[in-house]
Design brief:
Strand content: over 45%
Strand order of the largest sheet: 1-22-19-24-17-14-13
Helix content: under 10%
Number of helices: 2
Number of strands: 26
Largest sheet: 7 strands, antiparallel
Number of domains: 1
Oligomer: single chain
Structural class: mainly beta
Order of helices and strands: EEEEEEEEEEHEEEEEEEEEEEEEEEEH
CATH topology: Jelly Rolls
Radius of gyration: 19 Å
CATH architecture: Sandwich
Amino acid sequence: MATYRTLDRAIPAPLVSDGEGVLIHRAFPNHDLSEFDPFLLLDHLGPVDLKPGEAKGFPDHPHRGFETVTYLLSGEFEHRDSFGHHGVLKAGDVQWMTAGSGLVHSEVPGRSLVENGGRLEGFQLWVNLPKRDKMLAPRYQEYESAKIPTATGEGIEIKVIAGDSLGVKGAVETHIPIQYLHFKLADGARHIQEVPRTLNTMIYVISGGIFLDGGFIPEYHLAVLKNDADLVEFSASGDTQVLLLSAEPIHEPVARYGPFVMNTKDELAKAFEDYRAGRMGSINVPK
């Protein structure tokens, strides 16, 4: 008889603001969960309907020692960095940025969203890097929506950003084993996902709700699972969307403050020193 992972706890994602005033449901960190090795942060941007001129973003800021993953469901975000990288993310697109040794970047609403308004919704996930990779050169992996593999089942559609599901493998290359899966489920649809029990696993309910381990998890809640089986089972209540995120823990010390995540306080102090000295560069916006 198959056994399934059980629920450790369900955590609400309260509405907060960040950057210039971007509305966010912050799943963590919070007083219930500071980090979930190797995950450091999960923000659900919006969903919010913006009038022309209302869109706000995240001006120039540095990062070192981890990865940021931006995934848009709707809207448009433009990004630039101190290495000259520039691009625009649209609905369904993914940017997996390895900050590594450090850079300065900005994420601001795209021109269309600023001028015309519209719906903004998406996610930002922070993934820690193991010590061996913290000072790698910055790197981007960017995928348009059409290039992200999709798996389908009965009443289920899955965007496989990283990892695999229903025999479909994601496109993103990761430093450690990671699954990043976006599910769309029709009412009553049931799914069983194989996840080795060595991977820390959580499910964020974007909309609708799921039945999991005999309980109900509503939208804007994070379900943290125990590492007690190799299968995860859940079913949808109404039309539902969820993110399933799992990864192999790093099991290393974490020294974290603001935009930097290192292993020691000395490394953290060096990151601030390098940033203030301009060693992470600056963003030059063409006039």
